[in-house]
Amino acid sequence: MKTSRLEAFSDGVLAIIITIMVLELKPPEGHTLSDLVHTTGPGLLTYLLSFVYVGIYWTNHHHMFHLVRHVTGGVLWANLGLLFFLSLLPFTTSWVDESSFERTPVVIYGLNLLAAALAYVALQRVVIRRQGPDSPLRQAIGSDVKGKVSGVIDLVGILCALLIDDVGVVIAGACFIGVAILWIVPDRRIARVVRQYQAAEEASRARV
Question: I need a labelling partner for 154 at 20 to 30 A (CA). Which of 21, 112, 113, 144 fits?
Answer without folding.
Answer: 21
